[in-house]
Amino acid sequence: MDYTEQFKYCVFRIFLLFGAEALGLIIGKGVFWAAASVMTFLPEGAKQALVSDPAGSVTAAVIMAALLGLVFKDDGKKHAAYADMDIILVMITLILMLACYFIPVIFFDPVDSTRVVRSVYYMLYYPCRWVIELFGAQLKPAVAVGTAAILGIQLVIYNVSYGRYKVRHPYVFRVTDEDAENASEDAETSEGGEA
């Protein structure tokens, strides 16, 4: 990959992170709320559990991880198939995704914020609310832990996908005698050129 393709790769994954977060919010909050209002046969306790923040937030986080997982699984296969694995690019992309998602929470001050600002932060970081609800954490550590968990899963998915592709298609990665000779000739040529 050249630098332009690497830049596009990073930017697309960052936009995908926010898109997956929005879809997780819509399903975790909106669809569950609509389902609880339509399903009149459910007991009141089940409806309350369905629309609670922990249930919706965990659902949003799972949806976010699943959508990103599909993309990183495909990336692992493509990078293996085209012998273009660049784990450094993937790591930099994941770190940038974490940074872009975490930076806005640094400026959040619950004391000086208006109701609109609190609502925006509530929606933006809804997939991480389960950490707040279950462990009583503050917003900043909750976002760091929740997002790091989601992105850590993506790194695992990428590596597993890459490794499984290599195991299933070993003939693609076999070094032939001709390839070995060409590599040694290239090494000798570069050493001779430097001297």
Would you kindly provide a written description of the structure presented here, covering whatever features stand out?
This protein has 195 residues and is an all-alpha fold. 83% of the residues lie in helices and 0% in strands. The chain has one domain (3-194). The protein contains 9 helices and no strands. The chain has helices spanning 3-38, 44-50, 53-81, 87-106, 115-124, 129-135, 139-168, 170-173, 177-194. The chain is elongated, with a radius of gyration of 23 Å.
Q: Which characteristics define this entry?
A:
195 residues, mainly alpha, 83% helix, 0% strand
Question: Concise description?
Answer:
This protein is 83% helix and 0% strand. The protein has 195 residues and is mainly α.
DSSP helix fraction:
over 70%
Look at the helices and sheets and give the structural class.
mainly alpha
**Could you tell me the strand content as a percent range?**
under 5%
> What is the terminal-to-terminal distance?
30 Å
| Largest sheet composition | none
> How many separate domains make up the residues?
1
**Mean pLDDT, rounded to whole units?**
88
What is the 3D shape? elongated
| Tally of strands | 0
Output the helix-strand order: HHHHHHHHH
Task: Show unreliable segments.
Answer: none
- The number of helical segments is 9
Q: What is the radius of gyration computed over CA atoms, rounded to a whole number of angstroms?
A: 23 Å
